[in-house]
């Protein structure tokens, strides 16, 4: 067996890529407003299928050497967007909470850093739309010029070890119940209680063993 | 028949468990890192008394044994025997 076979080897986001029909707005937003440096770009002649347009692929640093990237395709018509973004459009009947569920959240180290990004956004044409304290994080939200929702978030406190246990019990319970027809939150909480009874005591004992 | 609600012991939930413990028919014990809120009667936890903000309130339940949630809104969390 390889010495790597049981290791968690990945190191964060290399890049997350999105199309843009507004390269000027995109640069104004990410580079000039948020201050994310341009760190890479590719000017590519169309390749592959005959209808592939020429394009620019460009990258902004989002910290930690991770990157957000865009594709700008020359001559590609911009879609009409009533609800959603330039990649995914939805009808008016689609609830906003569903449309907002897919977003990129970028981490900052503390409240003063979060408020600094709030200041930069509020001084721009993309002001903060919401500032929310969730369970253990606080976040600001806006939409970039392409309609993509961007969240910047800070931890309100460090994650505790028991939250990792709890997350794993939740996901094991979800996997157990998610194929039952008509499953709901009640099914999950009942199954999770069984897993808590099975595993929480042993987990605690393990934590208390001197290392 | 005693029913039990499990609630993860994290700082955001401490006061919720404390409010639950004030009711005469409720005991709050521990199983590993979880509070175990147990009773053989219906249990009502008042949200405002707990001081929990909404995001915390609506994610505080870890598991249900022998009971079901019959109310979980901005006012209260109410459990009854299943």
TrEMBL record, chain A:
It comes from Nocardioides currus. It comes from the Bacteria. Gene3D superfamilies: 2,3-Dihydroxybiphenyl 1,2-Dioxygenase, domain 1 (3.10.180.10). This is VOC family protein. Pfam families: Glyoxalase. InterPro entries: Glyas_Bleomycin-R_OHBP_Dase (IPR029068), Glyas_Fos-R_dOase_dom (IPR004360), GlyoxalaseI/FosfomycinResist (IPR050383), VOC_core (IPR037523). Residues 12-155 form the VOC domain.
Automatic annotation (TrEMBL), chain B:
It comes from the Bacteria. This is Uncharacterized protein. It comes from Nocardioides currus.
């Amino acid at each position: 067996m390889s010495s790597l076979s049981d290791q968690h080897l990945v190191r964060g986001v290399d890049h997350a890529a999105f199309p843009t029909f507004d390269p000027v707005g995109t640069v104004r937003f990410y580079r000039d407003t948020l201050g994310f440096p341009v760190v890479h770009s590719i000017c590519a002649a169309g390749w592959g299928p005959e209808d592939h347009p020429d394009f620019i692929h460009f990258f902004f640093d989002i910290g930690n050497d991770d990157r957000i990237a865009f594709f700008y395709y020359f001559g590609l018509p911009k879609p009409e967007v009533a609800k959603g973004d330039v990649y995914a459009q939805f009808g008016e009947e689609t609830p906003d909470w569903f449309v907002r569920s897919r977003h990129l959240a970028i981490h900052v180290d503390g409240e003063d850093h979060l408020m600094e990004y709030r200041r930069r956004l509020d001084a721009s044409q993309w002001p903060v739309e919401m500032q929310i304290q969730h369970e253990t994080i606080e976040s600001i939200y806006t939409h970039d010029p392409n309609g993509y929702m961007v969240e910047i978030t800070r931890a309100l406190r460090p994650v505790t070890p028991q939250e990792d246990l709890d997350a794993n019990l939740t996901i094991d319970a979800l996997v157990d119940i998610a194929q039952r027809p008509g499953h709901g939150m009640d099914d999950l909480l009942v199954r999770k209680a069984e897993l808590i009874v099975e595993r929480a005591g042993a987990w605690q004992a393990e934590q208390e063993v001197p290392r | 028949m005693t029913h039990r609600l499990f609630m993860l012991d994290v700082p955001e939930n401490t006061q919720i468990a404390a409010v639950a413990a004030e009711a005469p028919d409720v005991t709050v014990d521990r199983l590993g890192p979880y509070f175990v809120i147990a009773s053989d009667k219906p249990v009502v936890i008042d949200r405002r008394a707990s001081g929990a903000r909404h995001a915390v309130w609506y994610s505080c339940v870890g598991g249900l044994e022998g009971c079901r949630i019959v109310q979980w809104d901005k006012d209260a969390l109410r459990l009854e025997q299943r």
